[in-house]
Amino acid sequence: MHEPLTGKRIILGVTGGIAAYKAADLTSKLVQLGADVHVVMSDAAREFMQPLTFQALTRNPVYSSVFEGWEGDDAGHVTLAATADVVIIAPATANTIARMAYGLADDMLGAVLLATTAPLLIAPAMEHHMWHHSATQANLATMVERGAHIIEPEAGRLASGAHGDGRLANVDRILVEVRRIIGAGGPLSGNRVVITAGGTHEAIDPVRFIGNGSSGTMGIALALAAIDAGAIVHLILGPTVTIEPAGVSVERVTSALEMHAAVHRAVTDADVLIMAAAVADFRPASAATSKIKKQDGIDVQTIDLVKNPDIIASVNTDGLIKVGFAAETDDLIQNAQTKLASKGLDLMIANDAVATIGSQVSRATIISRGSRPPEQLAEMGKDALASEIIARVATLRDTGELR
Ligand SMILES: Cc1cc2nc3c(=O)[nH]c(=O)nc-3n(C[C@H](O)[C@H](O)[C@H](O)COP(=O)(O)O)c2cc1C
User: Do 177 and 259 sit in the same domain of this protein?
Assistant: First the structure.
């Protein structure tokens, strides 16, 4: 299991709204990413959730009162505040947002918030009018002025049954924001990384296309790993990608030609281009404008194909680090080395096509520009492979070569 938040200590403040139950999911996912999570609940939050749930998920004590947590070497709110890498409040009630704006320290959460210098992420959740009330908005503006990150609530069905603004942001969006905050200042800090993922559809007629089954898993894993390294990520996704990562800049394209245009637009101010998409090599010479019909007596239908542009080879932006993927069935390393040279790449990730496509694990070989021999990596999950690739991109960015 890949755990990018290993060694990170997160204080999660849970306050008294219906969405408190979603904080259990957030806690579980943070723990699965390797974080050491310490939950602090307001008294009102305890009306909605039992502390035992969070204690069991985190294996850490759950505090509410400022008079708790003073056993042994622990100095209550002072220790929690001093050791935090990030403080999250999810869900944040209107009441707690007001308490924060006024700097009240009448419970453990309020005291931790005053005593910590760690970055603060606030995920509000409340009824529509509470959210839009000028008091709530003014209190939030105060928190933004003080440097807090806000993850805006979403519109949709609220607990009251009414539709409006105020639903807690999707937990996956919160997770990406946490990773972005923790990754800030990382080895790719401030670098713009463009990543393509998924397969393309090449139209035959209005309802049919030539395509492939690429899921985009590798590209999405790369996007998250780049965020962990502090990068600003732009993802260009083909139509085969069904799960869009929350909280990441995403552009949708359908065909290879559209992806070609999108990549050329995106790289003008980028530092790194990673082409993880499975782009069709050929497209029908012309797509029929109406649905092609079966005709009696015609048993063979031919479609003329023309070559699509090689997207990564066509990008020649000065100083851009170019990373490509080669999925081959035969002569993997040799073919990958030839492609690296002909496309002017800095790194090539070579995979056995049959073993990789559609699989959650990969046994990749990393080939780099220059004389460094190919590096065979152990079999690992695509999340872990993504981190390995991003670490090498960061080294290339720093030193100009892999050593
Ligand atoms: C059933 C119920 C649901 C509530 N949901 C919310 C909510 O989603 N957001 C909110 O700001 N307050 C909500 N409240 C009001 C808060 O619980 C109340 O303002 C409380 O004082 C918040 O305390 P805290 O900020 O210390 O957790 C709800 C109250 C009840 C009874």
Answer: no
**What's the gap in Å between 131 CA and the centre of ligand 1?**
12
Q: Which residues pair with residue 108 across a beta bridge?
A: none
Q: Is the CB of 253 under 6 A from ligand 1?
A: no
Atom of ligand 1 nearest to the CA of 166: 8
Q: CA dihedral defined by 12, 15, 17, 21, rounded to 10 degrees? A: 40
If asked whether residues 128 and 234 sit together in one domain, one would say no
Number of folded domains that form the chain: 2
How do residues 292-323 score in pLDDT, each as one tens digit? 998 889 899 999 999 999 999 999 999 999 99
Which one from 60, 170, 212, 335 is the annotated catalytic residue? 212
Residue whose structure tokens are 């401030």: 190
Which pTM was predicted? Answer: 0.93
**Mapping DSSP to helix (H, G, I), strand (E, B) and coil, where does residue 27 land?**
helix
121/117 Cα distance (integer angstroms): 12
- Distance between CA atoms of residues 179 and 296, nearest Å: 59
Residues 164 and 300 placed together within one structural domain of the fold: no
pLDDT at 372 over 90: no
Check whether residue 341 and residue 282 sit in a common domain.
yes
Mark whether 212 is an active-site residue: yes
Atom 6 (ligand 1) nearest CA? 17
3-class SS of residue 129: helix
**For residues 336 and 328, is the Cβ–Cβ distance under 8 A?**
yes
pLDDT by residue (tens digit) across 11-70? 999 999 999 999 999 999 999 999 999 999 999 999 999 999 999 999 999 999 999 999
Regarding the beta carbon of 64 and ligand 1, being less than 6 Å apart is answered no
